[in-house]
Design a protein that fits this description.
About 10% of the residues lie in helices and about 45% in strands. By secondary structure, it is mainly beta. It has two domains: about 10-235, Methylamine Dehydrogenase, Chain H, CATH 2.130.10.10; about 245-325, Immunoglobulins (Immunoglobulin-like, Sandwich). The strands form seven sheets. A five-stranded mixed sheet has the order 21-27-26-23-24, with no helix packed on it. The radius of gyration is 32 Å and the shape is elongated. The N and C termini lie far apart (about 115 Å). InterPro entries: WD40/YVTN_repeat-like_dom_sf.
Length: about 350
Amino acid sequence: DIIADSYIDMETMIPALDEYDYIKDISSSPNETLIYYSIGAENGGLGSNGSMVIYNRANYLYYVEDFGFDKTQLIVNCILQDPNREMLYVGTNTGLILYNLTSMSIYSIHGETENWEITTLEWINEQLWFGLETEPHLYTYVRIYDPILETITDFEPSSMMYPVVNDILFNQATNELFFTTNYGFHAYNISNEELKFFGEEDGLSTYLLARMDYSTISNEIYIGSTLGGVNIFDPLYDDIPPQLFINGISTDDIISGQISIQITAQDYSGIDWVNATLNSNENWYSDIRYLNFDFNSSEYSDGYYEFMIETTDFNGLATVIVISFTISNVLINEFSKILFVAVLSTVSIIALFRKRRK
């Protein structure tokens, strides 16, 4: 009790914790009446047996559930209650268990035959997101359960998150997802589908990250680690300029005729605008991350030209690329002459043929 500056040893309230004392996680019901203890087996049951313990703060009663598994081998990593249903999502070393709180029974199990190890659970946009331990047959390490359709889909960008996703955090205000793993920290911008990675070279004390929490006061993320202390991440800090990808033209090209130019800008924070300027006077502009246009050399004199291509992200960071090229319409002119001679010869042959027929 923070206000009273006192504490209660929960083993006096829940004697079963003497047997189930390797507590992996603690969560609660939305109204905080029910407390859920995620307990893992340790040393084949010698150190602890694995189960879910539900404690009712209103009547001081508790209930132990092992789901019919061998509790000397069962590891319950995390528990999350569906905010809209009387349903618990239980992440274990044998899969994802859906547990009906009304009937106090298993509703369904996912990933049991594949031996999914569920490491973390998070409720995001009316769906359950969960992280998994690395398995050789797994392609993605984050999956999404839809409680309405009762289907599970892959979160494709998580194929880049290796080897274990330990925690998932969602910031609704910025529409961002954050992931801690055994190999660094990942941020994902849902709006523009950009994924960003942070490792020791970016300031982390270690790659081995554990749980995290978000401070609404400082707007920072506090990241726990294994043997590396606590790292503090500022989501608003940005020192990486946007990237530019240009197709259709490159430096030292010789342009003759019409070409199509495709420019794509990419940045985690989002792209404000993209602009292409020809010799400082003619420009093409886009207020999205894509800029596509056709360029016809026949509209310009032969000579040396420069395209200055610029983009800015929503944090004000800019990238500029200058492409130098040459316009040479000689090929076009020569082709026109050849075409003219060919047409003239054809007309002459037709005229001669008609004359001979007379």
